[in-house]
Amino acid sequence: MPQNTNMIRKLGLKYGIIAALISLVYNAILQVLGYASDQFLGSLGQIFLVLAMVLACKDFKTANSGFMNFSQGMGMGFWISLLTTIVGTVFLFIYLNYDPQTITQTLKIQEMALENQGKSDEEIKVMMDIVKEFMTPTYLAAAALISNMIFSMLLAVVVSLVMRKMNPDVFAD
Questions:
Q1: Would you say 12 and 80 are in contact if contact means Cβ atoms under 8 Å apart?
Q2: 68 DSSP β-pair partners
Q3: 58 CB contacts (<8 Å, ≥6 apart)?
Q4: How many beta carbons lie within 10 A of that of residue 91, not counting itself?
Q5: Domain edges within the chain
Q6: Residue 13 CB contacts under 8 Å (≥ 6 apart), including other chains
Q7: Does the pLDDT value for residue 2 go beyond 60?
Q8: If 15 and its partner were Cys, which of 37, 52, 107, 172 is the partner (CB 3.0–4.6 Å)?
């Protein structure tokens, strides 16, 4: 079992680093091209995370006679999720501190949305004062860390369920 635990961590770290780097490059390209706020293109970046999880599970199964249980898949999914989430959050925090205009633009978009909903100037001011308190690089990075880790682990559950193949030998690792 310790051998499998080491392999789970090793594959999780390997594919976590790969997924994190690819995601950073993808997001940098979106930023340079001006598509960083496009939710559809941003969500396409999750494909790299799923692909990393699938490839890690495939490598594990190859090394283990084609077998992998749910918890082994979740172990690799955890490491991949942890690495991609931490790397992404650190770069988000750095970026938001480097380019505070991103937060300013987001606040303007939110204010215009409230105006389009027909809110009064008083209501908009009150709502925007509340929103501004939470639109700091630290708060946004913390929220991203938590939400991305939860979402990534949900993806790990799905991938682990799909990729698992139980060993019929009950005494095997």
A1: yes
A2: 165
A3: 163
A4: 16
A5: 2-163
A6: 79, 83
A7: no
A8: 52
